[in-house]
Amino acid sequence: MQFSHIIGQQSVVQQLKEMVDNNRLSHALLFIGKEGSGGLPLALAFSSYVVSQSEKNKPVATTAGLFGDEPVAAATSHGAELAEQYIHPDIHYSYPVIPRKSGDKPISVDYVSEWREFIKQYPYGNVYDWLQFIGAENKQGNITAAECADIIRKLNLKSFESEYKILILWMPEYLGNEGNKLLKLIEEPPANTLFILVAENESLVLPTILSRCQTVRIPPIEISDVADALVQRSKLSETQALQIAAVSEGNYREALQLIQHAEEDWQSLLRDWLNSILKTGPIAQVKWVDVVSALGREKQKQFLRYFTHLLEQSIRLRTMGEEHLPLTGAEKDFALRLNKLCDISQQQAITEQLDDAAYHIERNANAKMLFMALTIKLYHIIANHTVIEVG
Q: InterPro entries attached here (predicted)?
């Protein structure tokens, strides 16, 4: 991974380059960015850049010749090439894993082949994608005490190729209290040791680790950059790319998921839901809940995200006018209908409920119970301008 492969984030890339070029590199960096913003790709590209720059600073080797010392042609890109293939001996990776069998104490290196393949195929993927990639199903991934001990062991070894020993620790939210085992190493690391932690949720990172790291904040990717990437990498038309980029709101993983599920008719599903809530009644609601519950977790999240997108566009349509909205004709018509159905306060209340539902879906909530409760809540928000707690 090189910086040229990063989608957008030019200001962050420039900041990272200047840290190295101006010799202001902290020994512990914490990249914080929401899902799909590119935290992991930036960490991978940054580690390659650190290695390549350190190689440039190596003294030129010489060998004795008949007429004096002669420089030896060095393969100055050797380490960078290894880094870009994720096989550099001085760049180590740590990430959530699961036991392969009962009683195992798994460490990241147990899954190194799968990890290399995953970051080649899905560099913008999230932890759910990774755990499904290694067959975790509903098992919870962890960065274990055994992993922390292995990190300490590896970083105390002498470097092989590079001036730096680098650890990329993805999702430190999964460390738990085991992370305290790393505090002394982070605070007093061996010479030329670089920690790069990549997190999505700052509030879930141990405060003792947060306080020992320099924070690099990664914003959502600009919608125009997401659209450009979709045109170039996924071969979408500019119109399709802009529409998907607008829904994804700077989350490139979400954009790829939307492409994958582009055949889904979210608008019809949403229309059926609202009709069951406001017109056709309980029997239709139960039938609709059965349909949406069978979709699976990722599609359920996509559907809720689509509804949230339409609500946001409805509010913008009301306050800013049609000329500022990247909406198709059908979506614009639906947004206008939502504005007739709800005022801004109701739309905001529905959005909060949808976000809360997506949160619980991510944590394996029972889909039938969740969507039935959500149906009841939406009825009271729309019909009675109230929010009630269900379940």
A: DNA_Rep/Repair_Clamp_Loader (IPR050238), P-loop_NTPase (IPR027417)
Longest dimension (CA), the chain: 96
* Together in a domain, 197 and 279: no
Number of residues assigned to the chain: 391
Beta bridge partners of 94: 169
390 in a structural domain: no
Q: Considering its fold, how many domains does the chain have in total?
A: 2
Find the domain containing 365 and state its range.
264-384
Question: Is residue 309 domain-resident?
Answer: yes
Within a domain: 302: yes
Query: Long-range contact list for 333-341, CB < 8 A, 24+ apart?
Result: 334/267, 334/270, 334/271, 334/310, 335/310, 338/310, 338/311, 338/314, 339/314, 341/274, 341/382
Instruction: Find where tokens 């060998």 sit.
Output: 63
Same domain, 202 and 290: no
Taking the C-alpha atoms of residue 38 and residue 44, their distance in angstroms, rounded to an integer, is: 10
| Whole-number Å distance between alpha carbons of 165 and 192 | 6
61-70, 209-218, 294-303 — which one is most confidently predicted on average?
209-218
Angle at 247 between CA 246 and CA 250, to 5 degrees: 65
Quickly state the pLDDT bin for 238 (edges 50, 70, 90): confident
Asked if the structure places residue 101 within a domain, the reply is: yes
Can you tell me the distance from the alpha carbon of 9 to that of 381, in angstroms, rounded to the nearest whole number?
A: 39
- The packing angle between helices 10-21 and 39-56, to 10°, is 30
Q: Which residue has the higher pLDDT, 48 or 298?
A: 48
Residues 6+ apart with CB under 8 A from 27: 186, 189, 193, 194, 195
SS (HEC) of 207-245: HHHHCCCEEEEECCCCHHHHHHHHHHHHCCCHHHHHHHH
The arrangement of strands across the sheet holding 91-94 comes to: 91-94, 165-170, 193-199, 28-33, 214-218
